[in-house]
Amino acid sequence: MAILISNPQARHLFLARQGLCAPPHRALGKAGLLAMIHDLGFVQVDSIATVERAHHQILFSRNQTYRREDLKVLLETDRALFEHWTHDASILPVTFYPYWKHRFVREEARIRENWRKWRGEDFAAAFEETYRRIAESGPALSREMKEDDHKSGGWWNWHPSKTALEFLWRTGRLSISGRDNFQKIYDLSERVVPADHHTAEVEHEEFVDWACRQALTRLGFATSGEIAAFWNLVTPQEAKLWVERQRNELEEVLIAPFDGGRPRPSFAFAGLGDRLGANSGGDPADLPEPPARVRVLSPFDPLLRDRNRAERLFGFYYRIEVFVPEAKRDYGYYVFPLLEGDRMIGRIDMKADRKSGSLDVKRLWLEQGIRPSAGRLEKLDAELARLAKFTGVERVTYLDGWRG
After folding, report:
1. 57 phi and psi, to 5 degrees?
2. Distance between CA 233 and CA 42 in Å, rounded?
3. Half-sphere exposure of 298 toward its Cβ, with a 13 Å CA cutoff?
């Protein structure tokens, strides 16, 4: 019989697995940062810096002692992390690199086929010339290899060398050795990835088992589709077969949604229901309480990456509207979700004006049933002050009409 996990239990468990139950003020340091990223699995990278870039905000929202310098050292000096793709560009522990080799093979076949459809040509010569140039001359930025007369646009419209750089990176022959003003610096993978990880090989069956097992560990509970989507490494069919083959290690659970509707059948590692005291409706006593403070999350926070899962668990409908025409936006260009304890309580539109030294709050929206009490607004103000300091501005400014 499937075990029922109440909605508060499910939210609590997922928050814990996502690093959002740990004390946000405990000294982190470089080793703690590496452990945090490992436990999360990945941290998405994005260039938008309306307040702070996504990867920095994801880490800061979990621990306010996070230092950007530690991340840079782990990436560019210690080589304990590397950049590549999950569902999007992400920072990952370098110990995962051998498993990403399977992605490289799949990406090469997929991209070559797509480019032939888009362009009707093969870029093999440009690929090899670009690779040879970096092998002989060393690391390069894409702007250093651009042909002056080539138009810009989507990557199918990039100049051949830029296209080659992206292809060689996505298929593993090049890696990102660092960034200059957020632009990627490419180098040969064997000069970036430590030799023991670069040369290690993993058989396909072991790769699928690792990807599914590690995804379920970080999700706590999931359908086979959610397992496949976590890393975007294995196919839905591979994840489904993995679940079938591992049924002796797994138990069926029913996850109660936020709206009180029909529970969603999922899987978890055996024993989860007993540890949570499931079917009793009690609190998960073996998990720490999430901090009661209000926290501003990145729009790309892994807690909300699977928008449908987040809506079921937290009753929180969230879509980023960067690519939505302004007239059709429900909220704004880049609106930040707000977490209080174990509930999503609203969203906030704001921007760091670095010239004036101000974090400008344009508008606050609270979810239905969430009151703008004095205590809650004080907690929000405290969080915005912390974020302003981290972002490097001096004050928080509430613009006219910010309460709607």
Report:
1. -70, -35
2. 13
3. 25
